[in-house]
Specification:
single chain; 81 residues; Chromosomal Replication Initiator Protein Dnaa, Chain: A; 6 helices
Length: 81
């Protein structure tokens, strides 16, 4: 899923999984968290391990992603059927 999302967003997978605070990358991680946790029902703790973050940080990122996900719904449907 990371590979497909990074392609759709025009990012390298390593950038999507990195710790950069560049706003575009942070928003992409928020979207990733939203899709995995809220749309696919995966556990925040699993994504937290992948991102080397705390579960709380990933849960907050998912909430931020939900707030900005509307423009990305079409892309997410292609990325995560």
């Amino acid at each position: 899923m990371v590979q497909r999302m990074s392609q759709k967003l025009g990012l390298a997978p390593t950038a999507l999984l990195g710790k950069s605070r560049v706003p575009a990358l942070a928003r992409a991680r928020h979207l990733l968290a939203y899709v995995r946790i809220e749309r696919l029902g995966q556990r925040a703790s699993d994504l937290a391990r992948l991102l080397d973050q705390t579960r709380g940080n990933v849960s907050r990122a998912a909430k931020r992603g939900a707030a900005t996900a509307q423009p990305w719904l079409k892309m997410m449907n292609h990325c995560c059927p």
